[in-house]
Description:
Layout: H1 8-16, H2 18-29, H3 33-49, H4 59-72, H5 77-84, H6 88-101, H7 105-112, H8 120-130, H9 140-147, H10 155-172, H11 181-197, H12 209-218
Helix pairs in contact: 1-11, 2-11, 3-4, 4-5, 6-7, 7-8, 9-11, 10-11
Amino acid sequence: MEFECCDVSIWKEALCGYASQIKSLSVNKKSNLVSLDEFYCNQLPSIIHQRNPNPFITTHELSQLMQWKLTRGKWRPRLLDFVSALDDTVVKTASQKAFQSLPDISKAISELTVLKGVGPATASAVLAAFAPELAPFMSDEAMEAALGNSKDYSLKQYLAFIDKLQTKAKDLSSEGVSFTPSDVERALWSYAVGKSSAPQLNQDPKTNPKKSSKRKRKN
Length: 219
């Protein structure tokens, strides 16, 4: 599935496969990714929004979010150590300021990246939990698909990433189908993870019969 794909059914299929890819990755990594994803996708957003009128996250919640991010992507234990050691009051204040800054994404990211161990990618995960319709998580897989580069974690790159995913979400939202930028990110992640874990399924005999027949003769 290319990022430029306009077939809504293909995007929906990729998004629907998100949970199964999380389960498979959890088994492969022998991790608790399923429960971490349940916390991040379903529990944390509700917890944050219940804290009206000044929503925030705690150090413990940020630590769980970091565990989710690192388990779903690349494991960097020092980042988890940094975040877990943060003062709770400092985390609450920074996250409050960030949420109050929205829809100014740039300012919101800047408010969060004052925290040790929190870069634009982790900050994006915090914002995505609070406002998935505005700020998608900056995953390597989605960055690669949307921008062709997953190595640049700068704020400038994230803003370019947001622009692409917001536009794609609008393009896909039609005829009763609603996509948020975060839905687009999860669909891209799901497709990329599925593709990398089952490369043999990417060869479609219907689209390339000659290549398929040659491979059969070699096997």
